Amino acid sequence: MILPNGGIGAGPDHAERLVRSYRRLTGSELLPGSDRSGSLVERLFLSPIVVLSHGTEDDPVLNYGNQAALYLWEMDWDTFTRTPSRYTAEAMERAQREQLLKKVQEQGYADDYTGIRISGSGRRFYIKKATVWNVTDEDGRYAGQAACFSEFEYC
To answer: Per the CATH hierarchy, to which homologous superfamily does domain 12-154 belong?
Structure first.
């Protein structure tokens, strides 16, 4: 999916932050496998693994979603990247989500997270075995949080 600005999702700096932070905290690769064709930006955006992130605002706003995330949340890039991340969960699920994000803030990452989320059209889905991690910039400063998962089912 080529975005209206001619790019594919995040720029190379953000893609590198996501991948590097994930590797440093989990000891695993976000994009496993030997296929290294295409740029990191392209491989991340086209990955079948759902990947999304938000920034550091008081009410964090989504700043990245790969093609799988945009499809699942039924949003285009511009809508997705203007959405406060709390709106990815229904109101009744937000307290659980907030507890998870605080745990990740303190511990660096959490894996095997499950929870119900809601798409832009109101469609509910249950994510399974998600990993949520802190994203840091090149100098090790906190730059937001990200999540990835490949298992989900519609409710």
So the answer is: PAS domain (3.30.450.20)
Which residues have CB under 8 Å from 112's CB, separation 6+?
129, 130, 131
Q: Give yes or no for a contact between 44 and 23, defined as CB atoms under 8 angstroms apart.
A: no
pTM passes above 0.70: yes
Specify the pLDDT at position 98. 81
Q: Is 92 helix (H, G, I), strand (E, B) or coil?
A: helix
How far is residue 37 CA from its own chain's centroid?
22
Count CA atoms closer than 13 A to 42's CA, side-chain side: 7
110's CB contacts (< 8 A; 6+ apart) are 100, 103, 104, 131, 132, 133
Q: Domain-by-domain residue ranges, the chain? A: 12-154
